[in-house]
Amino acid sequence: MKRTTLHSLHVASGARMVDFGGWDMPVQYPEGILAEHLATRRRAGLFDVSHMGRIAVDGADATAFLRTVLSNDAARLTVGDSHYTLLPDAAGGALDDAWLCRFDAAGYLLVVNAANRERDWSHLTAAAGAFSDVRLRDLTAETAMLALQGPAAADLLAPLLEGALPAARRNACAVAAFRGAPARLSRTGYTGEPVAFEVIVPADHAEALWNALVGAGAAPVGLGARDTLRLEAALPLFGHELGTAPDGRPIPIFAIGAARFGVDLAPGRDFPGRQALAAQAAALAALKAGTPADPAALPWRVVALAIEDKGIARAGAEVALDGRRVGWVSSGTMVPYWCFEDGRPGMATERRAIALALVDRACRSGQAVTVRVRDRDLAARIVPRFLDNRAGRYAVPVLTPQN
User: Which of 3, 134, 147, 398 is most buried, judged by most C-beta within 10 A?
Assistant: First the structure.
């Protein structure tokens, strides 16, 4: 298995290590997944995400090239900005989802999923052959990437840097320095936290940065809590909410609510799956307007499920409405949450079972459904969201009356 530059540090910290997409990664530290989840929501969690692929794209044709392979429009990115994007296939499904950053005028940095990095690299290098001046460089081995997420993240990170943090808006980017080495910073993350940073530094500076952040009060967080945090934020995971459905069909990109931030269908640009994605977008607009929609373009949607009975819904469990199967759970778990007092986390915590599900496109928020778990039907409800992160520095749990 591959190892990040922080591997020995995780082992020395007592982390339980697991195989994740061919990487030996920490799934949890001695405090456990629940404590790591809560520490992120209350103060700040620190994640080693160096297994994610980092591909630099530059050259005179870099923008033109990216406009032909990604669903979002790279030409709209100015220096100091980033956006969510996808590598679409011809059918309007996702080969991968990614993040594109423009730290300087010289080029771009594309962050891709660890398990898909080699396939993405082959896909991109093949497409780059049509352009005379595009250079792709895989920076994964020579750099490290840390994610610092939570309401205290800016307070912990800023004193360690030479230079300023990115502008105080989501997706902003900047280049600063850590102990004389370049530090590429973006206000991004995979937890739903309003205050969030991802930091890319040379691999030989990663351990010093990790130790400095832990010394300042950040809690180390493994893959287990990374998954519960992203699920609570209703963020898609490739292989679950993106990729292939349980029946073998590709999941349309517009089945996922967050996809609208990653697809730009403005005229004047062509890329794989554009026609299929336009049909998906039209079907989604029709569904929202209550008018007839093309069922072939968008057969499903990904929804949030609050589990009302005792039990945990896991991926693959069947979802039924009025006794008729309408889909499957794509991700499910039990998550902890802080009980808020006067707009801040109090001292008490609770737990709730939540899930994301791929269901028939006609399903609506507020509907009562059931989830089949071990020959038992658990009552559940389709809800708009599990978390409210739209204002303030805290991600606040959104609870149904049954929770």
Answer: 147
